[in-house]
Amino acid sequence: MTTWCDQVALVTGGARGIGRATARLLAQRGAAVCVNYAAHADAAEGLAAEIMAAGGRAIAAMAVIGGMRARRYGRIVNISSVAAIGTALPGNAFYAASKAEVAILTKRFAMELGPHNITVNAVAPGFIRSKASLQRL
User: Fold this and answer.
1) Measuring CA to CA, how many Å separate 26 from each of 64, 106, 132?
2) Is the pLDDT of residue 14 over 80?
3) What pLDDT is attached to residue 7?
4) What DSSP line would sit under the chain, residue for residue?
5) Could you report the per-residue pLDDT of 63-80, keeping only the tens digit for each?
6) Burial of 19 (0-12, 13-18, 19+ CB in 10 A)
7) Domains of the chain
């Protein structure tokens, strides 16, 4: 049986919002965490340091799929949103478009990485109050 201590989690967008909370929770459960980022290096490195200070295992990095392919194993879970398929909330057209892109990329990555025993899935939560979402309201 696999335990959390045997797991490595790559959390895309792990520097902020839901990704940050997800990285923290996975680390608290014993997984080694890669806080993946595109634009917020300081926040990602800060979170990795925070996790390590609490006794966890973490790094901040920009790309790791090559290593997954080499090991022929990996699990990727992307965060999308119900906004990707449409909501009645006004003023979020660009947010909805970006989350629709996540949904399509998830399907494409699953097709391309599946033969390497790498699964790619997405979760699509509804509205969650966060600093970013409250700024959009």
Assistant:
1) 18, 21, 22
2) yes
3) 86
4) ---GGG-EEEETTTTSHHHHHHHHHHHHTT-EEEEE-SS-HHHHHHHHHHHHHTT--EEEES--HHHHHHHT-EEEEEE--GGGT--S-TT-HHHHHHHHHHHHHHHHHHHHHGGGTEEEEEE-------HHHHHH-
5) 778 888 999 998 888 889
6) buried
7) 1-63 (3.40.50.720), 72-127 (no CATH)
Rg of the Cα atoms in the chain: 16
Q: Which residues are catalytic?
A: 95
Q: Which residue has the higher pLDDT, 127 or 79?
A: 79
The pLDDT of 86-95, averaged and rounded, is 81
